[in-house]
Amino acid sequence: MSRIATIAQSRFSVFTALNTQERLFEAQTQVGTGLKAQDFAGLGQEAGRLVSVRNEFSRVEQFRSNIETTERRLELMSFSLERVERISHEFRTTLLNAKNGETANVIGLPALAQGLLDQISDLLNVKDESRFLFAGGNIQNKPVDLNNGTYTPPTVPPFPAVADTDWYGGDNVTQQSRIDEDFVINYGVKANEPSIERVIRAFDAISEITFTSPPSAAEVTAVDDAIALLTVAIEAPPVGEKTLNELFSEVELNRVLLRDVNIKHENFAAFAEQTIIDIEQVDPAEAITRLNIEQVSLEASFATIARIQSLLLLNFLR
Predict the structure, then answer these.
(1) Domains in the chain: boundaries
(2) C-alpha R_g of the chain
(3) pLDDT of residue 296
(4) Among 5, 86, 88, 95, which residue's CB has the most CB atoms within a 10 Å radius?
């Protein structure tokens, strides 16, 4: 035997160096990628927790996406309903001021009513991307189309006493959105709501009148009927029906609900993101320190191996 070092000692030194080299490579990879491991196996017991947190985070992100979409739609509907109510208020005031004498003909009530009716139609035909919001579940059809070939405008006077919603292109389906694990919200307003129908009927009826000068008793009665119908829509609907403001408030309450639920999801998402970071990512300073230590250890291991392999019996005897 030409070496003092035994085979066992030599093998142990090489084994130690290889282990150090493996830890060095792991530290280099962590510093380079910022991750503790490149697969779940490398995370040990934390792997199961990571999968669980990621799955829950994914579900919460879907809920947040649903909330964002629903909130956007409700915001558009809220704006439309607020404008429809304001237009109705203002036009009712105009009718109250215009029903006496020749004013009705002078200020051009029919043209004004038609222009405002066009605005109301546009507001109720609002879309979010490709879907009409006031059409219930029939999202591809305009909810308000007074020229659809089915609806017949009234001949006034007399004022139309019966509702006619042949202009409505939607259906009676209520939209839904899942915003939490066990929480599905029903939301939205349909354009065939009684108060909205009354508004459209009042504007449409006035737009169809050809006023005489001075207005006839029948024409004045028609204006009075339009005022009364707008008053019902704005202030005093039958039991079980909603005013325009109540429809607006219903939408706003849903928006408040969405915001409250979203705050809960945001808090969990922040917790989940930090948990995922803690499980997956390394502390840069710690990783660099460990890398330096392993480099020094590897150099020492190589030096030890070289020293052992140089201990020949001849050199020892010298």
Answers:
(1) 75-244
(2) 38
(3) 54
(4) 88
Cα dihedral sign for 11, 13, 18, 23?
Answer: positive
Confidence of residue 214 (pLDDT cuts 50, 70, 90): confident
Q: What does the DSSP assignment read for 243-281?
A: -HHHHHHHHHHHHHHHHHHHHHHHHHHHHHHHHHHHHHB
* Token output for 315: 């050199």
- Cα–Cα dist 197/58, whole Å: 42
pLDDT in tens, 167-203: 999 999 999 999 999 999 999 999 999 999 999 999 9
DSSP one-letter code for 29: H
90, pLDDT greater than 90? yes
Q: What is the pTM of this model?
A: 0.77
Contact 311, 10 (CB under 8 A): no
Burial bucket for residue 110 (CB in 10 Å: 0-12, 13-18, 19+): middle
Residue 185: enclosing H or E segment and its boundaries?
strand 183-187
- What is the chain's percent helix, strand, coil content, to nearest 5? 65, 5, 30
Whole-number pLDDT of residue 49: 76
* In CATH, 75-244 is 1.20.120: no
